[in-house]
UniProtKB/TrEMBL annotation:
It comes from Laticauda laticaudata (Blue-ringed sea krait). It holds the Pfam family C1-set. This is Ig-like domain-containing protein. Keywords: Disulfide bond, Immunoglobulin domain. InterPro entries: Ig-like_dom, Ig-like_dom_sf, Ig-like_fold, Ig/MHC_CS, Ig_C1-set, Immune_Resp_Modulators.
Amino acid sequence: AIQKPSLSLVLPPLSQLTQATSQAVAWLACVINGFFPSEILIKWKKNNRSIDASEYITGPSILETGKSTFSTQSVLKIPASEWENRAVYTCLVGHESLTIMKNISNYLYGKSWCCKILDQPRMEPRFNSTQCKLLLIKMQLPSFEKLFTNRNATLTCMMSLTNTSANATFSWTMDGKPANNNSVTNEVFQETNYTSLMYGRLQVNLSEWINTTQFACTHFVSQPCCLVFVNSGTMRPPKVDLQRQSSSEDFNITLLCIAKDFYPDEIFLKWEEENQEMSFKSYDTHGMKCDHEKQTCSLLSMLEVPTSKWMMGASYRCLVAHVSSENIINRTTNFLTGKKKSMPQFNCQVP
C-alpha cells in the first residue's frame, strides 16, 4: 500500500559549526522515511528560493529493516560564510502519496539553536535571559559609563549547571565570527552538591562595542542554546547645550548641561572644574527620559557653583559621551567669557 513519507532535519554537528576557517563547510541533512513506493523527488530552498542541485547530494531509496517502506536522505552543503545569516532552509519532498510537495523548514542558527534576540530599546536593568528546555541562560551587558571611562568592559553570560552538564562551556561570537580566545573566560562556582553556576565572560573595548552589531554567547549542553544581543538600530548623536542661571539668593550659580535628541540611551556625562574631574556628589544628573516610538532621549545635569568661585573666573566644562561616536562632546563656560563657549570635539581614544 502507498505510504506517505515523514520528514526531519538534522543539524550539522557542533564540530563543523565551530571551525574558524573561512573555507569550512557544514552539512544540513533532510531525512525522509516510511514511504512507499521507492520513487521520490527531493529539492531544497533557501529563503524560499530554489537551490541548485549541485549544492546537495541525495542518496538512493533504501528498504527499511523489517518493513516494506523506504528511507533516504538529502544533504545540503552550506559554506561557513552563510552560517550566521539566519537564513531559512527548506527541504521539499514530492511523492506519489502526496497531492502537493511536503516540506520542512528550519534555521541553521536561530530557532533550531534556541536563540533569543535582544533588540533595542535597551533600558535598565541591563539583564536578559532565554530558556532552552530546562536550561536558563542569562546575559548581562556592560554599562556605557564603564565602557567609556575604562575604554573596555565585560559582557557576561550565566547559567545554572547540574552534574549532568558539568562539562558545559560558553563560546562567544562577534558578528558571527569567533571572539578572540584571549578575551574569553569561563568560570564555574559550586552552589550545592548537585548544582553550580557557570559564568562566561567576553571582554570588549569601546571600539569593538560601537562597531560590532551582534554579540552572541552559546552553551553546548545537550543542544546549543544562545543569547544574541543586537547592538544596532537607529543611532542619533546628542545635541548638547550649556546654560547658566542664578539662584534667588545669589549665593550660587546653577549650570545646566542639557543633552537631547539622542538615541539609544547609552550616554555618559561628567563635569570638570578648571580641567579637573569633579566628584559625582558635586552635581545632580536627572533620570533619562526616552520616547522609544520616536527614538529620542534627553538628559539633564545640574551643577551648583559658588558665586565667589564664578566671579573669580573659574571655568566649568560639561563632557558628554554617546555610543554613536568615540568622541566626547564638551561645552565650557566661565564668568570672564560672559557666555558659554563651545569647544570642538576631540577624540579621547587611547593609542
